[in-house]
């Protein structure tokens, strides 16, 4: 699909979710690395015109530290 098609879906009510920039299992990363892949994914999506208020953990991987990081980014989203 093209970017225009994805943005059209968003305008029709579809939700777009952040999923990191590299799909690595977040608990295997340092907190600094995890923070970077979360923030960079969000930044790039917003730059493309997406509203980003959802996150999907790659490989279903998370722990308490990762949950705290993702909550920080949800709080920043409108």
Key features?
single chain; about 80 residues; mainly alpha; two-stranded parallel ribbon; 3 helices; 2 strands; about 10% strand
Give a short overview.
By secondary structure, this protein is mainly α.
Give the arrangement of secondary structure elements.
Layout: H1 3-11, E1 16-18, H2 31-47, E2 52-55, H3 64-76
Helix pairs in contact: 2-3
Structural features, described:
The protein is mainly alpha-helical. 50% of the residues lie in helices and 9% in strands. It has three helices and two strands; from the N terminus they run αβαβα. α2 runs parallel beside α3 (64-76). The chain is elongated, with a radius of gyration of 13 Å.
Instruction: Determine the N-to-C terminus distance.
Output: 26 Å
Strand order of the largest sheet: 1-2
Amount of beta strand = 5-15%
> What's the helix-strand series?
HEHEH
In total, the number of strands is 2
What is the typical, i.e. mean, pLDDT? 89
By secondary-structure content and strand pairing, the structural class works out as: mainly alpha
How many helices in DSSP terms? 3
Uncertain segments are none
Question: What does the main sheet amount to?
Answer: 2 strands, parallel
> What is the approximate shape?
elongated
Question: Over the alpha carbons, how many angstroms does the gyration radius reach?
Answer: 13 Å
Instruction: Please give the share of residues in helix.
Output: 40-55%
